[in-house]
Predict the structure of mRNA export factor GLE1.
Amino acid sequence: MGTEGLRWETLEALKNSPKGKLKYSPDWIEKGEDILAGCKEVTSLSPISGAILKRLSPRHLLKNCSLGSPIRDTSLATSEDVPVSSSVPISPHHILTSPISQSTSLPPATTDNDDMVNEDKLENLHSMVDLSPVPSSTPPPTISLHSPRATRMAGCICICEETHRAKAKAELSLRQELQDRLVATVASRELEQLKRFEEFMELKQRQEYQTMRDMMEKETQESLGRQEKLKEEHRHRMKILNLRLREAEQQRLREAELEKQRLVEGRERLRALNAIQEEVLQLNQLLEPSSATQTGLTLDHTSYITRGNQLCSQVSEVVRTTAEGQFPSVEDMTVAERALQEMRSLLRAMQEEMAQAQERKKKEQEEEEERKKQADLKALQEEQKKNAALSAKEKARKQGLQTRAEDSTLKWYKELQDVASQCAQAFEDLNNPKDMQTKKLKMELQKAATIPVSQISSISGSQLKEIFDKIDKLLSGRQIVSGGKSVSTSQHPHGLEFVSYKLAEKFVKQGEEEVASHHEAAFPIAVVASGVWELHPKVGDLILAHLHKKCPYAVPHYPPMKDGTTMEEYQKILGYRVDDSGVEGQDSFLKRMSGMIRLYAAIIQLRWPHSNKQVPDPHGLNHGWRWLAQMLNMEPLADVTATLLFDFLEVCGNALLKQYQAQFWKLMLLIRDEYFPRYIYYHSTCLHQHNLTLEGAVWPKTSI
């Protein structure tokens, strides 16, 4: 039992020694460490192993012996010699030393067979020991010999180490094989993944190639589309250029035709200018005072002759300008025609003056003869005048005032309406055009006639001369610019009638609207109308026709209501505006009538300042006196008579006073003393009559 306990103590010591503590880790392969690194080291016994072996087998103690030279087993040589102290030299038949692995551990018990095996191994080891002496100059160290038990124990330890080494090598090879398999598996898997990756990259490359090819095809299609579009634009531009070339060629042909026409017209104007010059020279010869000397009249014709010479010089200047190889322009022809007209007027004025002089001479002779007779009959005539005045007043009180205009006035009124109707019928084809060109010409002529009149206002100032010249050119058949376009009445056979009619209508409409709202506008409109009337009498007749149609009180005329005429038609005849909403109010009606009477009164007293003063006024103050006298000889109308008399006298009263002086004051006294009382009595009587409408359009049928 004591031996067994020591044995276990020995094994425990070996276990706790550095050689007995073997370590194993599964990470050695990954870290690259060698598993047998510790096992390859040479093992050696501890210095105290001898004492331990002595205690384990005291019966095998050997005597110390000294050897001449140290004995070493080359197969069991260690990196470190373990000295065993002994005072007795060792026999050559004994083992000198035994290496022991530090990491070897023994089993707790051994069998006899094991001991036999260990002993055989020890014998083999003894046979392998070289016991030949080795010469040495130094004395060999002293070595303590172990017991057979210790030697056997050392052999067991070596065997155990070999067993564990073999087992470790087997496990290492197995682990190495597993590791190789794992590496092969991983390598094959990685190879498959590499193949998949290469296939994926190849697929991606094909897709990119396909995408690039699609993009190139798309760009090719777009390029083709752009080329087609450019070709289409080129064809379109070629068409436009061809059209422009054709238009340019047509324009050139038109210009050539116009140039040809201009040459023809220039030659015609040149012939007309020569004819005008010839006529002016002939008329100038008629201005010589030879005829006056034959009749014994002593008249001063110096002013006529001087003016005639000036006109001849003016025409000669125009002819001299055209003699340089140029055709006379339209302005030159206008100057020549005006000179011819003025020459005719001079001749006519001179002839009238001569006729008046002859008449005066005859009258003087007759007056001398009749003066004696008049002196005898003067007293008788005065008595007759007094009796006639008394009888006239007496007759007026008995019979009352007139309810209709005089026959001569009605005849004049109908003639003017016939003139307007004939003029309207003349341009019927232009007023109702059937083609677009005629319709366009109609609109241009109408604008050219009405726009200048619309531009006349109380603040026109210096524009009146420009407006008048524009209207005069249009009525004279010359071209004017209206709305950026050249227009002339000569472009249509009935263009002059159309323009005259529309111009007269516009003048009356301005009085109806502009003058009715702004009374001061009557004078600039009237002065332009008077100038146009003087140069173009037909326009003046049309102005009167339109004025009488819209305002019959300007005649003066009270149209009677005929049988079968409805009230609305009769009110239209009287000048009222009738539409779907009914008849216009009395205030609006009186306002329009007032505007037209004011325009008429202004035309009567005004003349165009640049006109020929020697020519009599075509519609002067004598017509104003006639209108006022006939208005006072007719029955007064409620509201209308008072309004028209006030407007007429306010505009034209001063001019009538300067012209007729005392006779005008007599007329004013007649209005104050006799006409106003009759008007007041008539107005109060009309308010109680049942047949009087709200507009005062029905007249009483019995005289007062």
